[in-house]
Amino acid sequence: MSEQSRFMLVVSPLMQSNLAFERAAALAKASAAALHIVAFDYLEGLATASLVNEQALEQMRLGYVERHRQWLEDQARRLRNIGVHVTTEVVWVQSPLQEILIHLKEQPMNALIKALEHESLLSRVMFTPLDIHLLRECPVPIHFVSHVVHALPRKIVAAVDPFHRDGWYEGFNDRIVREAAKLADTCNAELDVIYAHDLSSHQTKEFGFETALTLFSSAKAQALFNAQADAFRKLSERNGIAPERQHMIVGNPAKVLSGYAEAYDIDVIVMGRIGSRAMGRLVGDTVEHLLYKMPCSVWVVSPQTLAD
After folding, report:
1. How far apart are the C-alpha atoms of 103 and 109, rounded to whole Å?
2. What distance in Å separates the CA atoms of residue 301 and residue 304, rounded to the nearest whole number?
3. How many CB atoms lie within 10 A of CB 302?
4. Is 261 helix (H, G, I), strand (E, B) or coil?
5. What pLDDT, in 10s, does the model give residues 182-208?
């Protein structure tokens, strides 16, 4: 008998229910998975209040944590009533990132689910948000929930990128498609696979062209496009994706994917994030930007044991 899947839902310290609750409950129910809900509490005003002594402050913190624990249990009770196995936990900590990573190491999860916290560009530049830290460091798939129309996704897209000489990417693309297919099967959702064929300068240099203009002016342009189309088709076919579900679109990945998601009412887009050696290119240029621009939720597949 296979071990039961487990999801971890990270919630706000403000005792507010959100769309991530609905999505996590729906996914756990559909996949017969256990759901562990964790709140990492820290209220600056309460933690640094100067008008009371340390003992009183500690009692206030303990009281807040207990109220949050009871609130979470009330939410959990509702989910248990629909057949979801739920556990809850509240932790008082100023910087939740390391606590989340420790939790994932000590209690292996199939995915981390969290409501996306929308941040301004200035805020993201000045202070790296928790969501971006998780995007870069979380060892398990992360589901950033936003713009939820259906609690259980109905339309899912897997975004792949076979435009590389490095064979390292081939297996990762397969993992992205398999992860998306598993999610679609769980949700009984439609699955499409998209390759946004980017001919920008940083991509063409990988194939020996100084600029994209050189590529477009060369007879090799069509041959290169055909080769990438063939690689995309083989990737899709070996993962059981029907021809009508394969979409290769020329353009900037961020614009292509966000435009497609909006046009076709996509619920979740499944993407991959690369380790540190390609962080500036793939994550910095695509996933991080899309995270705040997509008109749907995002499921990010981590490299796991693949070499950085």
Report:
1. 9
2. 9
3. 22
4. helix
5. 999 999 999 999 998 876 544 555 555
